[in-house]
Amino acid sequence: MEEKQEHPLLAEMLTPEFLKQFKNSQDLNNFIDQLFTKGMERMLEGELDSHLGYTKHSPEGINSGNSRNGKTIKTIKSKRGEFVIEVPRDRKGTFDPVLIPKRSRFIDGVEDIIISLYARGMSIRDIETQVREIYGINVSDATISNITARVHASVIEWQSRPLSKVYYVVWMDGIVFKVRQNGKVINKTIYLAVGLNAHGFKEVLGMWLGENESAAFWVAVLNDLKSRGVEDILITCTDNLKGFTDAIISTFRQSVTQICVVHQIRNTLRFVVWKDKRKFMTDLKAIYNAPNKQVAEKALEQLDVTWGSKYPHAIKSWKANWDNLTHFFDYHLEIRKMIYTTNLIENLNGKIRKYTNNKLSFPDDQAILKAVYLALREITKKWDKAVQNWPLIANQFLTMFEGRAKK
Q1: Lowest CB count within 10 Å: 26, 37, 272, 390, which one?
Q2: For residue range 110-163, what is the model confidence (pLDDT) as tens digits?
Q3: Alpha-carbon span 130 to 277, nearest angstrom
Q4: Residues 251 and 394 in one domain
Q5: Cα distance between residue 76 and residue 90, in whole Å
Q6: How many CB atoms lie within 10 A of CB 395?
Q7: Are residues 244 and 359 in the same domain?
Q8: Counted domains in the chain
Q9: Which of 227, 217, 119 shows the shortest CA–CA distance to 172?
Q10: Degrees (nearest 5) of the Cα angle 254, 260, 266?
């Protein structure tokens, strides 16, 4: 962890002689509060000097067209608690401080604290209690609602932002929530797409709200990505939802469409009785753990010989999806690990659930989008590094997708 630099004036202040004036921690806290208040007021005076173009009592202010016009009392809320300060004014009313903007009473990240607590699934009442108990700040339910409501504008801006021209891999999956609509509680799906860009960083490309997950809706999602600047996706990784692969190819014709092997295994085991699952899985592993596609094909043939008569539908599913299940064999091990499963986005969905699991249902569509957006914002704060072994992986993509992969 990077060590914080000590302020040059700190050593001068914290001398034994200076500290003797404080009898206890309360005295010291009172002094810090006064220092904070006066410091804020001096900084606001400095902002007004800059706005007017001259300092107080300076002859340059004569006939300048604008001047000081007294002060107004304002109660502000910060992580240190509530403070009453004097805010300077100008005659024209054009002075809008950066430190404490007009119509705002929050500084020092208090709004970010409220939004972060909301993102973690806390109710408005719980947020009000926690902010008051920890920071000594009284914030009304209405104020908290207004602060969190502003998130909707951020959602719209984020959802319409331009994207990169090329993504090396895009993982896509849906997550289901319950929402109240027309007096009933129904299921709705948040569609999510996570891309691996040409610099090796993961990014959530967007979220879209629809009803039951369908290939038709995914077409709309893919078209939205295209309208926001995506020209090519080298590899997509999805579940085996009927029609999903065709939807991808209709939009990004050159994409390699890898079906998630883990999803395929789960679907296969639905056709196998419990007492046979262990033996069946042993034979199944010989397919997806094979060193290459040819060995995998022989393992599938053997699986058919052993189990085909008993579980024909389990084998049929592998044969029907074989081409899109085995694209990962065409790539080096580092890329194989990335694309043979949608675990990356499923893990993301699991983390979203942790932020929203105290919501049995959402009152409307906007509430779902707001909650998921805030959860994503918290989760992706840790996505600040390229994927492991990125230089090696990047070279493989540049070689195998020559002319399409961008440096």
Answers
A1: 26
A2: 566 666 666 565 666 777 776 666 556 676 777 666 666 667 777 888 899 999
A3: 50
A4: yes
A5: 20
A6: 13
A7: yes
A8: 2
A9: 217
A10: 155
